[in-house]
Amino acid sequence: MGDQMQFIVEKLNQEPFRKNYNLISFDSLESVQLLQLLSDVLGEIDPKHAVDIREELPEQTAKRMLSLLGILKYKPPGGVSDLSAFRQGLVTGSKPVIHPVLHWLLQRTNELKKRAYLARFLVRLEVPAEFLQDDTVADINKQYEELMEAFKNLHKEYEQLKTSALSTAEIRRDISAMEEEKDQLVKRVERLKKRVETVQNHQRMLEIARQLRLEKEREESLVQQKQEQKSQLFHAEQRLQRAQVQLKEMQHVVADSKPESLMKKLEEEINFNSYLVTEKLPRELESKKTSVYFLQKVVAEPAMTQADLTALESEINEVNAQMNQLIEKRMMKYEPTESKFSMYRQQASIIARKKEAKAEELQAAKEEMSSLERQMQEKTSQAHELEGSEVLTEDEFKQYVNKLRSKSTFYKKKRLEIAEITAEYGILQRTEELLKQRHEAIQQQLQAIEEKKGISGYSYTQEELERVSAVKSEMDEMKGQTLDNMSEMVKKLNAMVAEKKASLAPVIKELRQLRQKCQELSQECGEKKIQYDSCAAGLETNRSALEQEVKGLLEECAQEESNYHYINCMKRTLEVQLQRAKEEMKVYVSPDPQERRRAVREQYTRTILEQENLGKKLREKQKMVRESHGPNMKQMKMWQDFEQLMECKRECFLKQQNQAAIGQVIQEGGKDRLVL
What we know:
Its main location: cytoplasm. By secondary structure, this protein is mostly helical. It has helices at about 1-15, 25, 30-45, 60-70, 85-90, 95-105, 110-120, 135-165, 170-195, 200-255, 260-300, 305-330, 335-385, 395-455, 460-590, 595, 600-625, 630-675.
């Protein structure tokens, strides 16, 4: 406990509290000061709780502190295991309750600040299920949950970035590497510039190449836009097909339905809704009101002891026994007319219960259907986000299956063709091998003939020359085509540049006029700005004076409002105390002995009598102890002397036994020597 208080005092004397406490001054704090100190510590963790506890009721203070401690996941120590006792100690400012809370909060202030900050965004608001039936409320709740998940992900990324931040040495290495790459690129650009400067008209060629690159980029962007528009058109056509299918289905349903069936359905729905409004909901509302009335009555009554609970249970048992006796007497007075009415009443009650059960089942089915529809909409939206298209309807699925069947038949045909082509490929491969073998045999024969004639290598040289000449002719043709293409491209680019210049000439003229107009407007704007600044300065001075006046009035209003709230709170507490006094007087004056036993005065009287009897018994016991103290002390002294005497005798006996054993051993040793 001393270490705990020392730690609390050290933390409170540091920033941001700076209380200048010592152990004595901290231990001498009153309950109100302790509660204010706890509120200040909680306000440091969560700024919303930085309030003056004198401006709120003790119950509100305890509720506010308990809610924040619950969010911070504080668990009371073993000595305050009972939550009601902990709450009572927090209301009264008990030191055994406040000190452990302060020690726990000051140990982990930074961690708790983070937890309180996250609780502002992650504590989920519980919306009742009946409110979620409204589409607007459901959509807002869904957006709320999505924003909460997004906040979780962003906070995780933020924490990961904090933990995985690069060190300064790594950043410097990266910067040096990028500077080296930059130098290399600069040198490479300089080399390319020197190489290009030797070419004639290199500036014009560079300009043409730049324009060509821009046109290619524009072409790529146009192609991408075309693809996006195609996909949008495809999705729009799909939506149109689905809408047409739904329209056909609705037309089919409307064509098949008759006015009588529609009227019958509407009448059933109206009857069901009227039953809910006139019978079921008023009955449920009345039962809720009665339960709330009884609960309020129970809350208004003073706290009951175990004796009061046992008395109430005995009264309930007596009333139940009386009810059973009355029911038996009524059963004994059985009359046939009443039996018929009772049978009809029983049947009517059974039918009413069945009706209520069916209405509840129907309402539950409707709620389940609405929830399933919402789930279906969510699943369709998820499928649309994942796959890029909505879920197929039944007709679209049938068309898709038919397409798959046609594709499967087409696939089977192509697979047969591939098998035939594979077989033919095997035959052709074998034929190629045979021809290669025959060609090698002929080549060997030709080489032998050339060796005989003395012109070995003639055929190989001739083939090589023919191949080189063919390659040369192909390269010449390619060069000619390339030069023609380049010349045509240059002509086209020149024509395009001329067209662009011609089209931009009127625009350039308009631009010059607009520039002159812009200069005039900028001068006028400068003059207007000077006028505006002078006017704004005057208005700013007037505004500051008005703000000071409003600030003083607001402070005065806040002071008056705080006084009003304080007086109102004191009035409420006095009214509650007066009401309790009236109830106590009413119970005390009541002729019923059971009611009088519940009075606080009677309870305190019984407690005082019990304590007085207990005090008498304790005084008598104290008197007996004082009278028997002297003889008992003498007897205890005699027993101690007797114990010392017996201990001395035991030690003498042990010494005597040891000496006898040693003498016997010596005698036996002498006998052995004589025998030897």
